[in-house]
Amino acid sequence: MISPLLRRAAGATAWTRELQSSPITQVKPNDTLLVDLRGFGADWYASRDLPDWRTHTYVVPCLYGQLTSDRKRIQLQCPLLKHSRLVDNVFISMYGSGIPSPSVLSHTQIDPTWIQSYPSLLDFALPSKVLHADAYAHLIGKTFYDPEARESYVVRKIIVNRTRDIVAVVVPIAKPGQYVSRKTEQYHVADVEFMLKR
User: Fold this and answer.
1) Are residues 100 and 134 in the same domain?
2) Of 43, 125, 30, 132, whose CA–CA distance to 81 is shortest?
3) Which of 5, 16, 44, 84 is deepest in the core (most CB within 10 A)?
4) pLDDT at 131
5) Closest CA to 35 of 71, 85, 103
6) What is the tally of structural domains in the chain?
C-alpha cells in the first residue's frame, strides 16, 4: 500500500496524524504477517544491495507482540532478522496489514538462505554515511515547487526521522497578499533533489 503517495503533501500529513492519534484496531498480538523490507526504512533497504531491489519486493515473516498502554503502538517482532520495534498505524497501513498475493504482486520471501547470502539483513545500524544528515546541508534554504501540492516550499532543516530516513523539513512559501500556514512538512531528500532539477 502506498496511501501517502496518492495524496497531496498536506493531505498526506493529515492522513498520517489521524492514524497516529488513533488506537490500533487492524491487528492484534500474535497476528503473523509478511512485511515488505521497505518498511524498515528506504535508506536501510537500499543499502542491503539485494538483486533488483528498486523494482522487486522482498518480504520477511513477522508477528505482532504486545500493544502499548494507549493502544497506539504495537511491538513488531521479526525473529529471522533478530529485530523488533514499536510500530504505529501508519506502518500497519503501509507495510504491516498483509501482502498482496503472488498473483497480484511478485515477491520473494526472505529465509535463512538469504540471510547467509546477505548478512547485512541482520544489521540495523546504518552506515554513518547514510545517516549523516549534514551531507544534505546544501539543501537548507533551497526552494522547490511540488506540482502535486501546487505549492512552493523552502527547506528549513535536514533531519533523520524515526524510520531512519533523511528528510527535509520544509515550510510553504506565501505568495504576495496570501496567508500560508507556517506548519512544517517533511519530504525525503531524494524527492527534494529531484524537484530541484525540474
Assistant:
1) no
2) 125
3) 44
4) 52
5) 85
6) 2
